[in-house]
Amino acid sequence: MGSANGGGVAPLEKAATLVLLRDAPGGFEVLLLKRHEKSGVAPGALVFPGGRVDLMDDEPELAPQLVRALASGGPATLQVTAIRETFEECAILLAREVEQTEMVSATRAEELEHYRGLLQGGDISLAQFLSRENLLLACDKLIHYANWVTPDFMPRRFDTHFFLAVAPPEQLAIEDGHESISVNGLRPAKALELIDSGHFTALLPTICNLHRMSLCKNVAQVISDALDRSVIPVTPRLDKETSGLFLRIPTNVGYRLCEQKIEKSPVYAFGPPATYSTCPETKHDCLATKNEMAWAISSGLPTRPTAISAIIERSISSIVTPAFSAVLRVKPVTKKPGATEFTVTPNAAAQAPGF
Predict the structure, then answer these.
(1) Cβ neighbours, 10 Å, residue 94
(2) Fewest Cβ atoms closer than 10 Å to its Cβ: which of 211, 217, 268, 345?
């Protein structure tokens, strides 16, 4: 099938995203950003921080500035991209001072915040930033979680790798006002409820990953789930049947959502309310093709009513993975006009801003 713009198949662009996790009373939370309405990719959608690989992410000068990165070349570059994009989009920096073992403190991260705009504007390279501030990127804190590839029929395609990381204690997540316009610390199940209700829109990979994480009780289980599974590339396919169009993913790639019926163009399609049923091959809960009903959560967890309306955007590739450890607090502050900060504070009650 050709791309949705009528031309040939669009080339794949490498991308990476980072799912920051934290334990909280009664469960755990993930850091999600709302993209700007005028963004070129997933406008207005709820996403994990991340983006395309930049040339600066693969500079030879970076090699000594990476702490236990994956194999040199592609995998290491993806880790660098995930960390850099997260810093640019929400000010959380997974880095250490040279010869130090702890992540940079909240005070130090605040001192470095002005580099976000310099990096985004290309006024300084990542290697120059790290060298000037005597920093090393904490690649050893990232756990490979998922890999989603945009289908051939989309006009813009990404090969996106998702990594998990534990949120650095005390650092504040602050939207940049350009790519991201709000910061949200949410439990995966709560995020899905807000998507279901229309409060937020989200890409299919984001929804599938949130659902996968929602089956875990805490950060340790999310990490264990990631370490116990091999990362298998997931490419949704579009099937046309007499009853309509279906966006499907393979049933053997670790997700319980495997099918979504769509009513409009696959480029900008909102799926109808849906029912979860069991895939015969895997005995997993899957998205069925009925109109509404319930979301049956397995593993003995309670069932809650819901209906997912998934947005299939121009890039079905913005997913993520998790790992924040520490009980935190999310609070609105007034450090900057219009800015909301996501604070990771040990032993504090969790409360998402605006909810």
Answers:
(1) 27
(2) 268
Amino acid (1-letter code) at residue 153: F
Sequence-distant (6+) residues with CB within 8 A of 195 are 46, 201, 202, 207, 210, 308, 309, 310
Q: 12-343, superfamily in CATH? A: Nucleoside Triphosphate Pyrophosphohydrolase (3.90.79.10)
- Sheet strands side by side (includes 244-248): 237-241, 244-248, 259-262
| E-only strand ranges, 187-322 | 201-202, 237-241, 244-248, 259-262, 269-270, 276-278, 285-287, 294-295, 304-305, 311-312
Contact between residue 218 and residue 28 where contact means Cβ atoms under 8 Å apart: yes
* Angle between helices 188-196 and 204-214 in degrees, nearest 10: 140
Per-domain boundaries in the chain: 12-343
How long is the chain? 355
Give the separation between CA 308 and CA 295, rounded to whole angstroms: 9
Full pLDDT tens readout for the chain, 355 residues:
555 555 689 999 999 999 999 999 889 999 999 876 666 666 678 899 999 999 999 999 999 999 988 766 678 999 999 999 999 999 999 999 999 999 999 999 999 999 999 999 999 999 999 999 999 999 999 999 999 999 998 888 999 999 999 999 889 998 877 766 678 889 999 999 998 888 888 888 999 999 999 999 999 999 999 999 999 999 998 888 888 888 889 888 888 877 777 755 444 332 222 322 223 333 333 222 222 111 111 122 222 222 222 222 222 223 222 222 222 223 333 334 444 343 433 323 232 222 1
